[in-house]
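User: My notes are a mess, but here's the protein and S-adenosylmethionine's SMILES. Can you give me a structure?
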Amino acid sequence: MKVIENYIHGKNPIEKEALRLKIQAKNLKPHIWKNVDLNFFNLDASKPFLELGCGVAAQTKDLLEKLPYNISIYGVDVDPVQIKFAKKELKNKRCSFHVMDGRYLNYPNNFFCGAYVSWVLEHMTYNDSIRCLKELRRTIANGGTIMINTSYLEPKKSLIIKNKLSRFPTSCEKFLQLLLEWQRKKRKNSNLAARKNIFDILLKSGFKKEDISYNLKEMEFKTKEEISSWAEVIMKLFQSTAFQMNELDPNILHEIKQELDNSIYHSWHFGQVIAKIKKNK
Ligand SMILES: C[S@@+](CC[C@H](N)C(=O)[O-])C[C@H]1O[C@@H](n2cnc3c(N)ncnc32)[C@H](O)[C@@H]1O
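Assistant: No problem, the inputs look usable. Here's the predicted complex:
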């Protein structure tokens, strides 16, 4: 099996990464599920539901809660360390976890009734995303639904943090700029701006425009509690990626922390796709 190389959070100790993902999932849950109508999904209890790129199962427990109790969930991830953690973390008879590369799914055609793919396409190349989505089209039955969340981590695009002095705190912006440049230079297999080309990826994988619904979800954090909780998500995300950037000035994380602590407003947005699998009979 081909394993994803250079995963952007890859060198972090698993406990640290698991905690980061859990905090992220908890903060994003209300925004992810807001206005999502599961009646539209055509869930079929005779077939399992797939969570592709489930990681440590931080969102699998939300799926268990949201999907009807008779739907079983297959959590699949290419990283054996995260799957081992997920198996320990979430013991539930409706769930099973499997090490597998989404580009080469070892399941027969029409095996699943639908799929959930959250913060995963950012971690693969454009062509690999197409490959994964083609595999999902093959393994999900006609009429099934796929839900994708994807971020856009380019500077001055989705993350807005205001403090009393400046609109865009400079250290956060500087960090995102460095991250992007570093990624372009060093990495060939991640695509942090995946949201930007999600439509192309879907169309090239065989989805038709009329079967795709796209929602840009905006989140605003205004109260002290909301801001500090979201600042923790951002800080942990930056720390986990900075871990890989050997040449990064270590002071920048300290500066970011100060900026986040002194901020009075945060907003962030992400793209959510809900698309139908339609197959020619
Ligand atoms: C940022 S994590 C998100 C994990 C989880 N969806 C969550 O929100 O907590 C991205 C996950 O995608 C997985 N991944 C990346 N490429 C993959 C591939 N080709 N097949 C399966 N999983 C993949 C990584 O191993 C990682 O666990």
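The two ends are 32 Å apart (CA to CA).
User: Great, I'll file this with my notes.
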